[in-house]
Design brief:
Largest sheet: 2 strands, antiparallel
Number of helices: 2
Low-confidence stretches: none
Strand order of the largest sheet: 1-4
CATH class: Alpha Beta
Order of helices and strands: EHEEHE
Oligomer: single chain
Helix content: 10-25%
Strand content: 35-45%
Number of strands: 4
Radius of gyration: 12 Å
CATH topology: Alpha-Beta Plaits
């Protein structure tokens, strides 16, 4: 049975740190960074590399469309 591995890419300059994606993630893969972007916001980032399953919950709730989700099927 194939297993799906996911990864997210966050547009850090557009992210305003609303924290909705971290709450929506069922696997607690996303956290707000301690660093700030050009606008002074703490941005979201993927903290667990191999845990994401590509469910897209984070991208769906993001009000600014800053998150892209990628999925790879692994045997």
């Amino acid at each position: 049975m194939a297993k799906i591995k996911g990864a997210i890419v966050v547009d850090t300059e557009r992210c305003k740190g609303c924290n909705l994606c971290t709450v929506a993630c069922p696997l607690n893969v996303i956290s707000l960074s301690k660093d700030v972007n050009v606008r002074g916001y703490n941005f979201a980032q993927q903290i667990l590399e191999d845990t994401c399953n590509g469910c897209s919950s984070c991208a769906i709730v993001c009000p600014d469309g800053c998150i892209s989700v990628y999925r790879i099927k692994r045997e």
